[in-house]
Amino acid sequence: MNRSEILFLYDIVDANPNGDPLDGNKPRLDEETEINIVTDVRFKRTIRDYLHDFKNQGIFIKEIQDKNGNIQDAKQRANDYSSTEGKYDSLDEAKNDLKNCILNQCIDVRLFGATIPIDVKVGKTNKSSSVTLTGPVQFRMGRSLNKVEIQHIKGTGAFASGKGKDQKTFREEYILPYSLIGFYGIVNENAAKETKLKEEDIYLLLDGIWNGTKNLISRSKFGQSPRCLIQIEYNENNFFIGDLNNKISISHDFEDDKKLRKISELDVDLSALISAIEENRDKINKINYKFDSDIEFKDYSMAELITKFKDFGIETSEINL
Q: What's the predicted TM-score (pTM) here?
């Protein structure tokens, strides 16, 4: 497996891409820059749920309830994968068994790693430990390319505010009129060996990024659209360009980013990214891409952009998603 970097853009209209439960579930915001933030945890949750619900993949980090409605803790979840019903001759045997069973069955641990708590019976004694696996796929926090403003919306609920009352409840929510969010990630070929990451897992990851974002159809997330996915695969171990999310920007005709309401009102400027690709073309094995038909790039049509990469002598391939 070769090292690769991933750049993903998606936008959201009149919705909340990642509410902060400690701040009234408002969309997360960098107060200094007025940039919208989406956590990598939220992004990985989107991918996990898609791979489980649409691709029938095993997922370790998942809320599981017993018949009494109690949510499993992490130790109980780990013991679901024991091949010996939680009984071992040594703690090392338990750690190896649980680690291998979880890696064989759970794509999210092969991709993102995990800390697996161990609580098993060794002989007649309960023993505890943990196994930590560093994920080969890591993402930075997602950040919007445009400044945003949070809108507060109030409405009337469908039910009475209490028994015997004739007044309905009120509801309130926070949304962003428009946010174009960029995620930057890396696939580390060294950590991939430890988690047994497979090439087909990477394809499923890209599928989860694109189609998981599109298929997250909840009331607060409806309106998300994947716009651009680029994977740069390298032919040199331990090399990567880095900081891809800061090599793109947007341009538009408004005086203020906050007036943006849809993707057709802006162009995405990839000039700094293109320069970095040209500078490092000898180290690049391949560029895989997927573009939404509604996104427009500054100075390049989609066809011209692909031709530009090919002119650098780099193999390019559209991702079949």
A: 0.93
